[in-house]
Design a protein that fits this description.
Elements lengths: L5 E6 L1 H19 L5 E6 L3 H8 L7 E7 L14 E3 L9 E9 L3 H11 L5 E9 L12 E5 L5 E2 L15 E5 L3
Length: 177
């Protein structure tokens, strides 16, 4: 536990920036005149959202939703609930979900179902990182950034038990020793 955790760089801030640029260009093409609602999933996607929307030079709105996920460990419980809901109506709107990572897919699957029930005009998913090796349920990713190996990653918003979120690069948590 504690301070002896070893981190090794997986994606540098430059690689992340290039990826965010690429995603922004794709999103711009599709949403230019749609005044979309971007729904960022807290807490992990706040940094990605902040960088992404600064590259989107057209009308859009931002919403946040908070779901329960990992608790204190590295494993998803699979039991997901909305901890903090939306502040505005998304019925009839073009909704784009912004996620930090798709791991088992259980969170995204839950969230997309939840949002679909609110009858948006369209519903798509943008993810910065994708860990396909751990998928337990299929998830359709409309805008995909970086593919990550079957390792636990931190930084650029991603945490391990609330640690390392603030790091500007993305790291793999190596087993200690
Ligand atoms: P899921 O397993 O796809 O449901 O992922 C649920 C959530 O677990 C993600 O939104 C992240 O917040 C978190 N998560 C999954 N894998 C990692 C990781 O490698 N590092 C940090 N958080 C992760
Ligand atoms: Mg998350």
């Amino acid at each position: 536990m504690g301070s002896e955790v070893k981190l090794s760089v997986l994606f540098t801030r430059d690689e992340i920036a290039a990826t965010v640029n690429k995603l922004a260009a794709e999103i711009r093409q599709d949403y230019l005149s749609k005044n979309p609602v971007l729904i960022a999933v807290l807490k992990g996607s706040f940094m990605f959202l902040a960088d992404l929307i600064r590259l989107l030079d057209f009308p859009l709105e931002v919403e946040f939703i908070r779901l329960s996920s990992y608790g204190g460990g590295r494993e998803s419980s699979g039991k997901i609930k909305v901890v903090q809901g939306l502040q505005s109506e998304v019925r009839g709107r073009h909704v784009l979900v912004i996620e930090d990572i798709i791991d088992t897919g259980l969170t995204a699957d839950f969230l997309l179902d939840y949002l679909r029930q609110k009858k948006p005009a369209s519903l798509k998913l943008c993810v910065l990182t994708d860990k396909p090796a751990r998928r337990k349920t299929p998830v359709n990713i409309d805008y995909r950034g970086l593919t990550v190996p079957d390792k636990f990653i931190v930084g650029y918003g991603l945490d391990w038990d609330e640690r390392f979120r603030h790091l500007p690069d993305i790291y793999v948590v190596e087993d200690k020793g």
